[in-house]
Amino acid sequence: MDSLLEHGHVDLVVRAAAERGDWFCAQGAVRALQAKGERERAWEVMKPFTETGWLPAVSVGADVLLAWGRVEEALTLTRPVGEVVPTGACEVYAETLVKCGRADEAITFLEPRLRDRWTMRCLVAMTQGQGRDARVLELLVPLADEARHDQAQGGSHPFWEALDLQAEVLERSGRAEEAIRVLGDDVAEHRYGPRNTVQSYAQLLARHGRVEQLQQAVTGGHAREALRPLTKAFTAAGRAQDAEEILRRHIATAEYPGNEQWFLIEFLIEQRRFEEAIAVGRRTFEDPWESPLQGVVFLLAENGLHDRALQLLDECSPEFVAERGDWVPSNRWWLMGELGRCREAITQIEATPERDAEERACTIAGLMAQDSRLDEAISLLAKHPGDRATTDRAHLLARQNRPLEALAAIPDIAAQREKQEQRWGPRTGWTVDAQNYDGGSSEEDHEGHAEDPPF
User: Fold this and answer.
1) Is the same domain home to 316 and 347?
2) CA 36-37-38 angle, 5° bins
C-alpha cells in the first residue's frame, strides 16, 4: 500500500479498500485523500469500516468527519452506547470531545472512570496544551497519594503510574521544580512501578540540566537508569569531557560493564571519534553474550562508514560466526550492496546453498534491485510463495509502475487469515491500541483494547 501511494496510485488503493476490505489500504487511502482535501471521498472509504464498530476505524472516521466540519456526526459516531462499553471506547469519545474544543466535557466524562491506568494515561495525553493542567492534577494527585500510601505499606497498587503522570503534568504546566521534588521523593522512598520511576526521574533531571542531582543518582545506586541521561546533560552543557570521564570511570569499576561500555561507544560515535569507539568495543566484539559488534556496525553505517563496518565483519573469526554470529553474513551482504558491490555479494550468497531458500532469494533480489536489475529480481521472487518474497515482489512491481500486478501479488484478507490459521491455529484474544493503531503491535498495545478487526 505504501509503495502504491508513493507512486501516485491513490485510486487503486481506494478501490482495494472497498473491494478487498483491507484496513491498511483504507488507512492509506484516507490519509492520501485528506492530504488532497478530498474529505467526502475519504469518508466514503472509511464509513464501511466504522460501521463495524471497531474502535480504530471509529477513531479514524471521527477524524475524517471533524476535518470535514461535521462535528456532531463525529461525536455521535464515537459516543459509547449500551450497558457494555468496549474497553477504549470512552477514551475515543473523550479524545473526540477535546478535538472539538470541549476539553472540560471530556475531563468530566472520564472522571468517574479514572481508576484505570489506561484512562489516566489518556487523560494526561489528551489534555496536553489544553490549559487544563490544574484540573487534571486535582484528579491525579489523590490517586498518586493512594499509590504512595499502599507502597509505603509494602504493597503494590494499580495506580502506580499516577506518580509519573503527576510529575509529567507538573512539568508541562511550568512547575518543574515541584515535579523534580515530588518524583525525587518517590525515588528516595523506593516507590517504583513496573515502569521504572527512576528512569522517569533521570530523564526529567536531564531535560532541566540538573547535572549534580543526576550525578547523585548515578553514585547512589541508579547508574543503569541515570548514566545515559547524565552524559547527555553534560554534552548539552558543553561538558563532553566530563561525560567521557564518568563513563570511563564506571566501566573501570562496574562488575558487569556491558551497559556502560555501550553508552561510551554511542557517545564516542556521536562525537565522530569512530576509531576510539571501535577500540572500546573491540575486546568484547566476540563475547558470546554481550557483543556490541552488531550495534557498532549499524552506527557506523548510519554515519556513512559502510566500508569500515564491513571491515569489522570481515575480521570476525570463523568460530564466532559459527557459534554466535549467524547475523554476520547477511550484514556483510547488505553492506556490500551499499558499497555498490551487489554482484560480488550475490556470488557469495549463491555459494551458500545451506541457507533458507526464501531468505536467499529475497536477499539476492534486493541486491539485484539495487543493481537496477528489477526484472530479474521480480522473476526470482515469483518462484517463492512465502510471505516475505510475496511482499518484496509487490514492492518491486509498484516501483516498476505495475500497480495492478503489485496489488494482485498480495493475497486478499480471507486468504491471509486462512494461511495464518493453517500455520498457527485460530487467532483469539489478539487486540490493538484503539487510539494509536498503525498496523504494528506490542505487548502494551494489546492490553485490554479493541478486538481484532472484523474485516
Assistant:
1) no
2) 95
Q: Are 349 and 335 contained in the same domain?
A: no
Alpha-carbon gap, residue 375 to 393, rounded angstroms: 10
pLDDT of residue 150: 83
My answer on whether 282 and 294 are in the same domain is: yes
What is the per-residue pLDDT across 315-372, written as a single tens digit (0 to 9) for each?
A: 999 999 998 888 999 999 999 999 999 999 999 999 988 888 999 999 999 999 999 9
Query: How far apart (Å, rounded) are the C-alpha atoms in residues 308 and 138?
Result: 56
- All three cell numbers of 323, joined, read 557459534
Residues 24-81 pLDDT 10s: 999 999 999 999 999 999 999 999 999 999 999 999 999 999 999 999 999 999 999 8
DSSP for 16-47 reads: HHHHH--HHHHHHHHHHHHHTT-HHHHHHHHH
Residue 441's pLDDT is 34
The DSSP symbol for 451 reads E
Our CA dihedral for 173, 177, 183, 185, rounded to 10 degrees, sits at: -150
Domain assignment present for 348: yes
CA atoms within 13 A on the CB side of 173: 20
CB 350 within 8 A of CB 342: no
**In sequence order, what DSSP letters do the residues of 262-277 get, joined into one string?**
HHHHHHHHHTT-HHHH
Between 159 and 166, name the one with better pLDDT. 166
- Domain extent at residue 369: 341-410
In 3D space, the residue among 173, 169, 174 whose CA is nearest the CA of residue 200 turns out to be 169
| Cell 512465502 -> residue | 386
Q: Angle between the 223-236 and 258-270 helix axes, to the nearest 10 degrees?
A: 20
Q: Give 262's contacts (C-beta < 8 A, 6+ positions apart).
A: 281, 292, 295
In degrees and rounded to multiples of 5, residue 16 shows phi and psi of: -65, -35
Tell me: do 321 and 350 sit in the same domain. no
User: What integer is the mean pLDDT of 114-131?
Assistant: 93
CA dist., res. 228 & res. 234, Å (int): 10
Number of domains in the chain: 2
Q: 367 and 323, same structural domain?
A: no
Residues in contact with 66: Cβ distance below 8 Å, sequence separation at least 6, in sequence order = 74, 96, 99, 100
Q: How many Å apart are CA 171 and CA 165, to the nearest integer?
A: 10
Q: What is the DSSP string of 398-418?
A: HHTT-HHHHHHHS--HHHHHH
pLDDT band at 86 (very low <50, low <70, confident <90, very high): confident
* Residue 268 domain flag: yes
The CATH number linked to 348 is: 1.25.40
Residue 258 and residue 39: Cα distance in Å, rounded? 53
Sequence-distant (6+) residues with CB within 8 A of 355 are: 349
Q: 89 is written with which cell numbers?
A: 471506547
